[in-house]
Amino acid sequence: MIRVLNAIVKREFKLAFSGSFDFALPLLFGVMVISLFPLGVSPGPEMLQKIGAGVIWVSAILASLLGLEKLFREDFRDGSLEQLRLSGQPFAVILLVKVVVHWLITVGPILILSPLFALFLNLTPLMFEALFLTLLLGTPMLSLVGAIAVALTLSLEKGGILLALLMLPLFIPLLIFATSAVNNAQLQLNYNGQLGIIAAMLMLAIALTPWSISFAVKVSQN
Amino acid sequence: MVYCSPTSLIVGTILLTAENLSCIKQDRLLFSQLNFSVSAGNGLYIKGENGAGKTSLLRILTGLSQPAEGSVLWQQKDITSDFEEYATNLVYLGHKLGLNGNLSAIDNLVFWNTVNSIDDTTDLYELLSLLGLAGLEDMPVNRLSAGQQRRVSLARLWLKPAALWILDEPFNALDVQAVELLIDKIKSHITGGGSLVITSHLDMVTRLNCDVLHMEYNI
Known about the structure:
heterodimer, A: 222 residues, mainly alpha, 10 helices, 0% strand, elongated, B: 219 residues, alpha/beta, six-stranded mixed β-sheet, four-stranded antiparallel β-sheet, 6 helices, globular, disordered N terminus
């Protein structure tokens, strides 16, 4: 089983970095939004600090949505998903690994560059700490739940718009708790509560989504 | 209207059984009350016009699709009860080749071998040159011709020691030599006690002495 998972991880990385720069698209998108935003609104440091966390979070959400569309799609089209399902390995675990690797490749770079984003938008170190923790806990949850929507829209030619609509209700609570954690940090208050709720959502997603994703893929293959 | 040919013979133990299978696609009944079995050392050749439901039937037999009614049994047990166990006994080659176009033939096959838990005892380079792909092993698969891509996917039949082969139009895009090679491979699989479900528009398949299931297109 470990060998199988290892092979899947290796293949995903190889595909992501072979030739095309698709994997960098979400990151590029995030960088663009965050660098253009201060130009659009007044570049006053207080204003930026006030809206900074929201801007970073919205761009992270949209960037991860941009990346999600590619998840599973090619493997579905060329039949690799069928072969994986007929490989005699637990399908849910295979898909979970694919989602995790996809998160590492598309959202990972955004996390790595987030100190830079925080600098752009004049966040204090305490605010950055809260931002980073919420991103670290929140974005995997987005990928996991988003993968269900991706799997459901696999058999549609243009599933992108539907995917965005399906995901919208999920963004709202996450965004509210995440930005409220950063706001608390700005006021040097404790934000364990918000972080705890995001962590709880992530745990629930880890526990339940692998089976939902595999079921949704099976529905698409039917 | 679907019927089994009267020449149906059951030799050896029954491996795969279809019980009262029905399939509905886009509000159209493709087939209903379909019963047959495939035993070890025997094959089933599914014939029929385009749109008769051959591919749908094969996908139901692999467990990728669910039938509207009925069930598929592997050694008298429903395949959904232990799907992983069933999958280890199965090689399915469908219309989609299951090869990633950006990876080479070798990479694709090594990956497939690993996820299917097959020990790397076969020399893949030797196998690919047997399939007429010498020198193309490290080329990305989407640079190969349609026939060559099909040959890469056929390599699975040499790699996985599975009792049941489900092949959907395996001769598509193949040239004469490759067709001969594949027919020989299928023959040795059947004489070795394996079983086979195949669809094809080639008359050559009759040389395999399979049972024939004729499916008709009904509106």
